[in-house]
Structure formats: C-alpha cells, structure tokens
Predict the structure.
Amino acid sequence: MLYTSTRDASLRITSAEAITRGISADGGLFVPCETPKIDEAFLAKLVEMSYTDRAKAILKLYLTDFDPAEIDACVDAAYAPGKFSSADVAPVVTLHDNVNVLELWHGPTCAFKDMALQLLPHLLKASAAKTLRDKKIVILVATSGDTGKAALEGFRDVEGTNIVVFYPNSGVSPMQQKQMQTQEGANVGVCAVNGNFDDAQTGVKAIFTDPAVKQLFDEKGYVFSSANSINWGRLVPQIVYYFSAYADMVRQGKITLGDEINFVVPTGNFGNILAANYAVNMGLPVRKLICASNANNVLTDFITTGVYDRNRQFYMTVSPSMDILISSNLERLIFALSGEDDAAVRTLYDALKKTGRFDVGQATGDRIRALYAAGCCDDAATKRTIRETFEKHQYLCDTHTAVAVRVYEDYRAKTGDQTPAVIDSTASPYKFCTSVVEALGETVDGDDFAMLEKLEAITGIAAPAQLAGLRDKAIRFEGVCERNVDDMRAVIQRSLGL
Ligand SMILES: *Cc1c(COP(=O)(O)O)cnc(C)c1O
C-alpha cells in the first residue's frame, strides 16, 4: 500500500515516510492510494477479538511496509493493560433504546486524543527507524490544552524520542495547566509561552523552519517532528474504534452482522469523523455519519450547501476542543470525492487562503450528503442536554459529547431515521467539570478542582483517578519563556540536556 498527497497525486511514498514527514512538502495531506476492502467474514472474526487484536488486524491492512510483528509490538505497547481504565479500551454503552455511546475517553488524559496519541509515538519511532536511521526524534507541540497533555502522555519514556510542549501562559484552564506542569517521564519538557495560543504556535513554526536551529540539532543527532492531527499516524488508529464499536454492537446482540448503523461524531478538525469515513469505504455497514458542531458551525453549513466559508464570527464555547473554523482533515474528503483531482484541491485551498471560502459544487456536495448529515447547537442547548441526559437516562456526558447527543436527537426527530446509532463520547465529564456542574443547575463556587469534588458529590460517580489526584501532585515544570526563537530553542536544548 502506497500513499500520495492531496495536492500532488503523482507522489508515491510508504506509510513509514508518510508518518515521519507528517505533512507533504506541497502543503497537501498524505492519503492511501487504495482502500483495503473487508468482507463479512473479516467482521465476524473481529466480533470475537479483543480491542488490541482488532487494532492489529486493521493496521496491517494500511501499514504494509511494517513487519507484522512490529505492528503487534506497537499496538501492545499503546493499549497495554492498565493504560486505559476500561478493559475494553473503548466500550459501547446503551444510552436509551437503540441509541448507544462509544466511550473514547478511558485513556491517561481522559479525552479521545489518547486513542491515537498512545499509538502514534510507537508508529513514529518504528517509521523513523526505517526512514531516518540513527536520528532521535524531538516532537515539538504548541497546544491550546488537550493535545499537549495527550501527546506528553503518549511520548513519555518512549525510547528514541523526546517531546517538548509549549502552551500559552494565559490560555489554558487551571486543570489543563496542572496536567502539563506535573507531567512525568524522563524525555519530556513543558514550558509556558508569554502570549496566547497563536503566539505559541507561531513560535513553534519559526523553530521548525529556522535553518540555523535545524543544523544545530542535526549535528547532535536530532530531528524535529510533529504529532498534530493531520499526521496519518494519528488517523489510522482512529479507524479501529469504528470497527470495534460495530463488533461490540454485534457481540451485545444489538444488531445482526451486516446491519447498518449510524455514527454521530462531535467534530472540530474533522479527523475523528474522517476515520469513520475510511471505515465505511472499507466496507463497514453504515447508513449515515452525522457531523455535530457547536456554535462554530462552519461544517454544518458546508455539508448542507457545499460552500465552506470561514468568514464568520469565532465563538469561544463550553466545548473548546471543537472551537475551530478551519477543519484541516476535510481536505482528504474533498480529494477523495473530487475523484482524486489534485488540481481541483489546489484551486479550492488557494481560494480558501485568499478569500476564506470555497464552493465544491453540486455534484461533490451531493456525494457528501449521500453519506453525511450535519447539525449544530449552541451552549444553552449543550447544557440543557447534559442535564436532560442525566435526568432521563442517568448518563453523565461532557460538553463535547452533549453537542453530539443534541444534534443526534434533533436528526432522529426530523428524519424519523430509527437506524441503531452510536454516538462518540470524546471526553470524560470530569475533564470539563465546571461547565458540567453549571449545566446540572448547580452553582459554580470554586476552581476546577473544587468543582470536580462537587460533581462527584452530585452524581455519585467517581472522577478518574488521574484527574482527582492532580491537585496534590508535585509540579515539575514552572518555566515561562518569550515567544522568540532564541528563548524557545534554549528551552528545547535544556530539555534535551544539551
Ligand atoms: C479534539 C476533540 C474533538 C474534535 O475532534 P476532531 O478530530 O478534531 O474533529 C472533539 N471532542 C474532544 C473532547 C476533543 O478533544
């Protein structure tokens, strides 16, 4: 299986190269040249398997330049017993009737990013061994909160790798800051940057592109790489849980092998729902993918009209991980649905850069709507949904999951589509406890940690240990730097012991 670029369809590289490079030099994203197809016998076998065995089976279809034993070792390390608080890794639970929740937040940082970021470091290390030889990888991350922590946990103590995370000094929640400042591991570094997220991101980009910095680290045997969500190595682990959810639905007797189901996905950068699309292309029986957005509803409009227009107000919502106006992974869908027309993709993304909008036209729009439905809701509806879901179904969901529940219930009421449904739950409610406490109609009278205890008292549901234990954990990283290349380079050098 070879990979190509959405902006240069003549390119051919291996999966190891795609994972090491992250993004194509032409600015495009790497995509597989073919779709591996599965049949009902393959699905029947998955039903009997553990999550790790399902992951091994799916990954082997895509990473054909890896030795099968190498894939087994990567998967075993990522989902080793004890890393996820559920033995099923990503369990499917009933919400009501034939509506189910796929819980993707049982990993070390309590958000769905762990599903991919626990595996990516191992894939990246194995990929780099094939493509870079002898070099050690330094992962640089600028984070607005969740990704940084998930990347730190994923790369912590993975041999041959280092990770340095920069976060905006005045831009993450107290809980998120504490999560990062207390990070354990011998190969990790964390530093606050004076400024907002854009400043941190601009600084990291400047480090990546500065030739003098590159040479300095190159001489010491290090190369920079990134763990962001457009890396194929983050997408491929996400395909697994769509197959796994389907297999669990069969195993639990909720559907019969071959039945269609719907998936509902709270969406930001379009990575999670695109992984579902790959599963569908491979042959997973799915009727609709329902794309759920918060008030930043650029994708709802795009799926409904075919026009992508980022010229609109940006809202800070209670579901911050979905506060995005440019959904990078959408480029992969457009490439596929335009008949792998790289020139068409270049034209659209040039227009997006220049004017902030593009129109894919009626034919491509119709192809998108054949599989996708879309909807959105604001913060008031999100909070109402958290409360109603808890009162009616005794299920406590976080703000991102609540957006998906709301959009799904609206979709079901409007269309009458009774197909069994699986709603992705992307974070533990305890990760966003202040908003959840407020949603339940209680007063907010303390910080995130006080609200965590309050939420435990209200619901009788214990918080995940890794969040509850955070308040008293020793701080390891208190540094603050300026956002210039010299300061940030010095932070990286210190972290590597150079
Ligand atoms: C990142 C994230 C999302 C959005 O996922 P995309 O793959 O970017 O669409 C949704 N919910 C939570 C909690 C997240 O952390």
In short: The mean pLDDT is 95. The first strand starts at residue 3 and ends at 5.
